[in-house]
């Protein structure tokens, strides 16, 4: 479904947090013992470094750091937040929602919830916030935060080099006019697709046992990287085409695309096929790795510092992830 809000929401402030110093490919190899080279990792993923959270840091901590920056930029006090939505698949516990801990750390008093839609989580959280603003909420805080380094097998060459930790945040409020702010968003899920990326154990379908832990079934698994790349490129191209058609724009009308940072090779293929030149595509994966539900939130914070983020510009946030779920959101930068 394509959702075009009657009462649009605009960004008041953004923030991002990457824990600790960068972990370069050489650092990663030394730390994990992976039989790879730095050059091989970069050529196959586009990643030169990522951040892994130190012991003692939680997903709620990362989210709160990013949120404080966004609130400060927006000049919004925590007590003014009316909705808090956190996208994460790295919750601090199975229950309660990690968003509850974030709310407590900030000193907010609003309803708070988690959304689990893997790499698409931030856009699913964003749509919830947009609908909240349309129905009267004055201030919504949307977050993406992940500590994926604790859910990867450090000996697995398919996953260990890819995933990073981090958090991003956006404070939303009503836009001044209906033709600026988030003017449209398309979300979709295709649950019948084969699950090529998953954590098999730890849920009701396969509860944790000594055997599941020994077998490493609580780590994230990529079953067929080549097939995942092929399907991911095709699905993202089709998703962008459908979203632009629903919005009534061409890809050439976009001033900047902020994609999910899954894999640099995939991104090059996707934007080559849809005809978006490199200068119109904001890429952070080289320094962040794939931060899953936090990726677009972190990239959005950086995009707002880009020269292409200017009054009247049309920005697209585009993502595809496990489930599979995906989405594209269109943002018209407000006039000053």
What does this entry look like structurally?
- This protein has helices spanning 25-32, 38-45, 59-74, 98-106, 121-134, 210-214, 225-247, 264-274, 285-288, 295-303, and strands spanning 2-3, 9-17, 23-24, 49-50, 83-87, 112-115, 140-147, 165-174, 181-189, 197-198, 221-222, 256-259, 314-321, 325-332.
- 32% of the residues lie in helices and 22% in strands.
- It has a single domain, classed as Thiolase/Chalcone synthase (Peroxisomal Thiolase, Chain A, domain 1), CATH 3.40.47.
- The protein contains ten helices and 14 strands.
- The chain has a five-stranded mixed β-sheet with strand order 1-9-14-13-12, sandwiched between helices.
- The longest helix is centred in the C-terminal third of the chain and has 23 residues, at 225-247.
- Helix 3 (59-74) crosses helix 4 (98-106).
- It is globular.
- It starts with a strand and ends with a strand.
- The protein has 336 residues and is α+β, with helices and mostly antiparallel strands.
């Amino acid at each position: 479904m394509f959702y075009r809000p009657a009462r649009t929401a605009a960004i008041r402030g953004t923030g991002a947090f990457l824990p600790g110093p960068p972990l370069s490919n050489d650092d990663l190899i030394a730390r994990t013992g992976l039989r790879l080279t730095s050059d091989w990792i970069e050529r196959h993923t586009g990643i030169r470094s990522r951040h892994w959270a130190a012991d003692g840091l939680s997903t709620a901590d990362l989210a709160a750091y990013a949120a404080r920056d966004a609130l400060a930029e927006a000049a919004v006090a925590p007590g003014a937040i009316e909705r808090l939505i956190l996208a994460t698949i790295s919750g601090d516990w199975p229950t309660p929602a990690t968003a509850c801990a974030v709310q407590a750390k900030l000193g907010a008093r609003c309803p708070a919830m988690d959304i689990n839609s893997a790499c698409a989580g931030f856009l699913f959280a964003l749509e919830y916030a947009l609908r909240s603003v349309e129905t009267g909420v004055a201030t919504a805080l949307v977050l993406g935060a992940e500590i994926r380094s604790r859910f990867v097998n450090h000996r697995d060459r398919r996953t260990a080099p890819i995933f990073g930790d981090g958090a991003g945040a956006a404070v939303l409020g009503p836009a001044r006019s209906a033709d600026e702010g988030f003017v449209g968003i398309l979300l979709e899920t295709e649950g019948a697709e084969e699950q090529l990326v998953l954590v098999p154990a730890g849920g009701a379908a396969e509860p944790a046992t000594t055997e599941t832990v020994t077998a490493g079934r609580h780590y994230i698994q990529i079953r067929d990287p080549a097939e995942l790349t092929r399907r991911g490129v095709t699905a993202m191209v089709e998703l962008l085409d459908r979203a632009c058609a629903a919005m009534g724009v061409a890809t050439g009308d976009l001033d900047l695309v902020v994609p999910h940072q899954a894999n640099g090779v995939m991104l090059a293929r996707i934007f080559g096929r849809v005809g978006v030149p490199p200068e119109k595509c904001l890429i952070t994966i080289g320094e962040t790795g794939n931060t899953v539900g936090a990726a677009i939130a972190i990239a959005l914070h950086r995009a707002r510092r880009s020269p292409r983020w200017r009054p009247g510009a049309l920005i697209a946030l585009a993502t595809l992830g496990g489930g599979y779920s995906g989405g594209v959101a269109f943002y018209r930068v407000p006039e000053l």
